Each structure stands twice: as structure tokens, then as C-alpha cells.
Amino acid sequence: MALDPDREVYPNAPLQFVAFEVRFPASPPLATEDLRRQLFEALRSTFPISQSAPGPVEVQIMPGAQPLVQSAGDQLQMVDRARKRAVTVGTRALLVQTTDYTRYEVFAEWVDLAVRALEATGEAAAMERIGLRYTDEIRIPGVERPADWAPYVASALQGPIDLLSDTDAITTQGLVEFAPAERQRLVVRYGAARGWMVAPQGFLRTKSSESGPYFLIDLDSFWTAPEDELPEFVADEILRICDELHAPVRVAFEAAITEKLRNDVLRGESA
After folding, report:
1. What percentage of the chain reaches a pLDDT higher than 70?
2. Is 72:86 a contact under the CB 8 Å cutoff?
3. At a CB cut-off of 8 Å and minimum separation 6, what does 155 contact?
4. Which residues contact 269 (CB under 8 A, 6 or more apart)?
5. Which range (71-75, 216-220, 224-228, 261-265) has the least confidence?
6. Residue 50 to residue 39: CA distance in whole angstroms
7. DSSP the chain
8. Which among 33, 56, 236, 249 counts the fewest CB atoms within 10 Å?
9. How far apart are CA 224 and CA 45, in angstroms?
10. Model pTM?
């Protein structure tokens, strides 16, 4: 995929975690040693370390909630030497994850490599769900309360923090679901919180291990197969859908933040 020179890449982007997932009907042969060896050989140039039955990248809905991304018991995981990107193949899903995201075109190359390696095994019969998820944790020194985020995030994401005139809000959280196209959804989770969304003690190293106040923008863009049809697992079609899922993610993130956040934090112009 060619790079898009017109899309700005922020030097101080708050992305903590990005994941791609494609789910397919259960395929027990993908748990066999021969197929795992085949997958590892196809992917080892980019993901040279293999391990079985890993722990998950723990991603909370909100602090105290159950993780959204969990490990399956019977799977193969391959990671890079820096432990910042991984491919996980189970009997029902393929997952590509990174905590060192630079731009979509680079991430899409890893997805392309992994999807074509799985397609080559002939063991993924259909595609049930394709997802692309971006988790941003925005942290700014001195910003402690939900009200402090007003200059940095869109007013629509503030919530009713002044509902009680004599009491300060301490956290906020919200969720909204959009339908950009047929079979496609974008779920936006947001709010002012404390702690973390992506666990810093996970098997992938995160950019930040801070646990103080942050503002969450979590974008889950996904496609689901029709109820009466399971389309064939075809790499080119999966990659096309992935591109379509990415488009509203960028639009939603840009709409969620202010120019002050871009200039003061993301671009680092006032640093």
C-alpha cells in the first residue's frame, strides 16, 4: 500500500494499542504442529519469536471492568524482538496487534502478511467478523479533573459534568455506535478516567506505564458477515474491508479533539 503524503502523522500521538482481527469458523487443524510451523515460517522475518498459549494484551472497557481483548487457550503467538508487535493465530481468529503504531500503511503491511499466510494454509473457510481497533490514552501534565479536559477534547465528549453544582465530577464515560455502511459499525468509547486502558504489564511493551488521569478515545471499527451467508476467506477482500474500516477511525479521532490539543501536545509545538 502506498503512503498517503497528505495525512498528518502526529509525533506525539497518544495511541497505546492498535489491533486487527478476523474471525472465522472453527478450524481444529490450525492447532496442529505442522500448520503452526508453516505459519511461523511464513511470518518469522517480521515476527521472529514464537510462543504458545500466551497471556493477553489486557484492554479494559473502563477501569475496573473486564478486558475486551482476551487470549484463547489454544493458539500460536509470534512477536518481534522488541515485544511491540505480535500476530496470534487460533482455531477461530487471527489477531495482529501493536503498541508501536506509526501509520496505517505500515500496520496494513503486517496485516497483509499475516492474512495471506493464513489463507495459504487453506484452513480458514470463511470470514465472520473483521475488526480494527485504536485505543488512545491522552495524558497532559496538570490535567486532573474531567472539567480540565474542556480545552483539549470536543465538547460533545465532556458529558454532564456540571450536573451537581456543588460537586465535581471525578470520572466520565460514554459510548456511541455509528453505522458508516451496511454491515459496518464504529463503536466509540470515551471518557475522563484514571489508571490505564491498556495494561502496561501485558506481553507487549506499551509506550507509557503511567497510571494517573487520562482521557480515553477508543475506536472499534468492525464488519460482520450477513446472517444468511459466510463469505469465503479471501485475503484481497479482507484487506479491502480493512481499508474501509480505517477511514472512519481517522475522521472520528480528528472530530474528537481540538486544535489546542494538536498544537500543544500532539504536534509538540509549545513544548
Report:
1. 89
2. no
3. none
4. 263
5. 71-75
6. 10
7. ----TTS---TT--EEEEEEEEE-S--GGGGSHHHHHHHHHHHTTTS-EEEESPPPPPBBSSTTSPBSS---SSEEEEE-TTSSEEEEEESSEEEEEES----HHHHHHHHHHHHHHHHHHT---B--EEEEEEEEEE--TT--SGGGGTTTB-GGGT-STTSSTTS------EEEEEEEETTEEEEEEEEEEES-SB-TTSSSPPS----SEEEEEEEEEEEE--TT---B--HHHHHHHHHHHHHHHHHHHHHHB-HHHIIIIIS-TT-
8. 33
9. 31
10. 0.90
pLDDT of 268 strictly over 90: no
Beta sheet of 213-224, edge-to-edge order: 49-52, 75-79, 85-90, 93-98, 15-23, 129-138, 213-224, 184-194, 174-181
How many angstroms separate the CA atoms of 83 and 161, rounded? 39
d(CA 40, CA 144): 45
Dihedral class, residue 268 (left if φ above 0, else alpha if ψ from -120 to 50, else beta): left
Cα distances (angstroms) measured from residue 147 to each of 30, 208, 240, 260, 264: 50, 23, 40, 15, 18
Categorize the per-residue pLDDT at 205 as very low, low, confident or very high, splitting at 50, 70 and 90.
confident
Query: Taking CA 47 as the corner, what is the angle to CA 46 and CA 50, rounded to the nearest 5 degrees?
Result: 160
Examine the pLDDT at 64 and tell me if it is beyond 90: no
Q: Residue range 154-169: average pLDDT?
A: 92
Place of cell 450477513: 226
Calpha distance 155→171 (Å, rounded): 15
For residue 117, give every residue at least 6 positions away whose Cβ sits within 8 Å of its Cβ, in sequence order, or none.
39, 42, 43
Determine contact, residues 15/135, Cβ cutoff 8 Å: yes
